[in-house]
């Protein structure tokens, strides 16, 4: 297996018919992680952290460096591996419906690559468009921005959010906008999932 083949293989999404996957996308500091955690707690399900934050936090702590083009594929591979690992865990749960809540996806990484660099590695684009989710949520920009080591766009959240929406539409990825306070967000998603899974 050559380098390109290995990268493509490491970006393959593993799916299982019993696992309902929910991808939560959105601009920075719009409550994606909080919603993932809250939904996972509500359903007793696993959730997939955003690998990019872990990866870039180490890079920042060790070298005081931020994301570059060369980081995109390692981040994509790490995100895919984490999602695949947690998909297996979700399958092993005894509930009738197995849920997996994903804090971001390769689609969002692709969109950010195009936003910041005007381009995206071909293998990442191909994988991002191939990955499938049963429900895609786009978080509204309706909560205060909170600074940390990695966030850098407090005044571009609305613009980035609309760019994400336009790309989801362009690539025919149906999505639902989710906003409100923590409780309202969880209750809305619970209702949507109930509609999806009722017989």
Architecture overview:
There is one protein chain. The protein is α/β, with parallel strands linked by helices and 199 residues long. It has eight helices and five strands. The protein has a five-stranded parallel sheet, sandwiched between helices. Helix 7 links the parallel strand 4 and strand 5. Helix 2 crosses helix 8 (182-197), helix 5 (106-117) packs antiparallel against helix 6 and helix 5 crosses helix 7. The mean pLDDT is 90.
Care to give the gist of this entry?
The chain is α/β, with parallel strands linked by helices.
Report the end-to-end length measured between terminal Cα atoms.
Answer: 44 Å
Low-confidence stretches: none
Outline type: globular
Beta-strand content estimate:
5-15%
Average pLDDT level: 90
Strand order of the largest sheet: 2-3-1-4-5
* Individual helix count: 8
Report the strand count.
5
Structural classification: alpha/beta
Radius of gyration: 16 Å
How much helix is in the residues? 40-55%
Pattern of helices and strands: HEHEHHEHHEHEH
Report the major sheet: 5 strands, parallel
Q: What oligomeric arrangement do these chains adopt? A: single chain
What's the topology here?
Blueprint lengths: L2 H8 L8 E7 L6 H12 L3 E2 L2 H13 L8 H20 L6 E6 L2 H12 L4 H9 L4 E5 L17 H14 L5 E3 L3 H16 L2
Parallel strand pairs: 1-3, 1-4, 2-3, 4-5
Helix pairs in contact: 2-8, 5-6, 5-7
């Amino acid at each position: 297996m050559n380098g390109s083949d290995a990268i493509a293989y490491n970006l393959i999404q593993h799916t299982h018919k019993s696992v309902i996957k929910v991808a939560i996308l959105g601009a920075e500091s719009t409550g994606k992680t909080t919603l993932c955690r809250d939904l996972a707690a509500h359903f007793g399900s696993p959730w997939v952290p955003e690998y990019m934050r872990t990866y870039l936090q180490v890079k920042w702590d060790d070298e005081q460096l931020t994301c570059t083009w060369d980081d995109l594929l390692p981040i994509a591979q790490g995100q895919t591996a984490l999602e695949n690992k947690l998909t297996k865990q979700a399958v092993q749960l005894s509930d009738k419906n197995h849920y997996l809540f994903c804090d971001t996806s390769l689609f969002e990484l692709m969109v950010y690559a195009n936003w910041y660099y005007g381009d995206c590695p071909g293998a990442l684009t191909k994988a991002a468009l191939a990955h499938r989710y049963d429900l895609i949520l786009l978080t509204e920009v309706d909560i205060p921005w909170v600074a940390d080591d990695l966030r850098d766009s407090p005044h571009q959240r609305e613009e980035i959010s609309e760019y994400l929406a336009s790309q989801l539409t362009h690539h025919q990825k149906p999505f639902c906008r989710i906003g409100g306070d923590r409780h309202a967000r969880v209750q809305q998603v619970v209702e949507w999932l109930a509609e999806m899974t009722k017989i």
